[in-house]
Design brief:
Strand content: 25-35%
Number of strands: 10
Number of helices: 10
CATH superfamily of the largest domain: P-loop containing nucleotide triphosphate hydrolases
Structural class: alpha/beta
Distance between the termini: 42 Å
Shape: globular
Strand order of the largest sheet: 6-7-8-3-9-10
Number of domains: 2
Length: 240
């Protein structure tokens, strides 16, 4: 029996007294793109933040290759192979592109060869970042900052990369390019867990998907099937 790369069991997460995740179960297999879709406030970003150790769940388990990482500190989770590209980019605006990328590689412990190799990989995905490598992060365009956010997450050479709203605020042409890049990252052997408001675009590149509503998984299945599901089409794809 194959073990899922990531397995979430009965996860309950709170913000103070607010019960944000109400017992969700999610699995991500090695090599997949899995997307979480749902309205604002459904618990998608909270799920990623709980997996990456930024929030502690009150109940449930998070397993990485069958190893329990529920109580593991966030920096150790990065070392274990999970990178998180957060919503809103959150780059270091006063650092250069190269310095931002270096910040993503801290878990490599100063291994210069590994850092240079990973940086070359990032630049092959995003040639624009190489052109701008000495530019301050804060002076980049929105699309370039999104590339930098994804590139920084890749610097730790993750087994699983979590992307939170990568297309937010981008022009349609850039959205297309970002999704093509996510597909390319996956083709290079990185498993992807994707949170995305653009449900149609996410389901088109994903293998499987989960639909969240107010902290619960209400629907899951193959992405192709979810694209055809009448409930999904009405609620998330803008169809009547």
């Amino acid at each position: 029996m194959t073990v899922a790369l990531l397995k979430i069991e009965n996860l309950h997460t709170y913000y103070g007294h607010v019960h944000a995740l109400k017992g969700i179960d999610i699995e991500v297999d090695e090599g997949e793109i899995v997307t979480l879709i749902g309205a604002n406030g459904a618990g998608k970003s909270t799920t990623l933040r709980t997996i990456s150790g930024l929030i502690r769940p009150r109940e449930g388990r998070i397993l990485l290759s069958d190893e329990d990482i529920t109580s593991t500190p966030a920096h150790r989770i990065v070392e274990a192979g999970i990178s998180h590209a957060p919503e809103g980019r959150q780059i270091f605006s006063t650092l250069t592109v190269t310095e931002n990328l270096s910040m993503g590689a801290y878990s490599l412990g100063g291994d210069t060869d590994a850092i240079e190799e990973n940086q070359s990989r990032v630049f092959s995905l995003f040639p624009r970042l190489e052109e701008r490598k000495n530019q301050l992060g804060g002076t980049l365009s929105g699309g370039e900052q999104q590339m930098l956010t994804i590139g920084r997450a890749l610097m730790a050479k993750p087994r699983l990369m979590m992307l939170d709203e990568p297309s937010l605020g981008l022009a349609p042409m850039l959205v297309k390019a970002i999704f093509a890049t996510i597909r390319e990252i996956n083709a290079r052997g990185v498993t992807v867990l994707l949170v995305e408001q653009n449900a149609r675009a996410a389901l088109k590149i994903a293998h499987r998907g989960y639909v969240l509503e107010t902290g619960r998984v209400v629907l899951s299945g193959a992405a192709k099937e979810l694209l055809q599901d009448e409930r999904v089409r009405k609620a998330y794809l803008g169809e009547r």
